[in-house]
Amino acid sequence: MLTRHAKTRVRQRSIPASVVDALLDFGERARSGAGTETCYFTKKSWKRFATYLGQEARHFERYRAVYAVVADDGQVVTACWRR
What we know:
The chain is an alpha+beta fold. Helices cover about 35% and strands about 30% of the residues.
């Protein structure tokens, strides 16, 4: 699911694998060219995720600004923090 590059970047950027999974399950997607799409949280998608988590959502609030780049084959190419 994660490329070697993505595993390295997720570890370097302190992004938990559970957040990447949540992005893939709840996040919005937009084409970003070259056979990839960007997966990110919007207010609406974050609300769905927070409802799913319940009280535990407060522990994930800091990860709202994370996004992932996903290849057409479903592999996560990288994950980053929005600035």
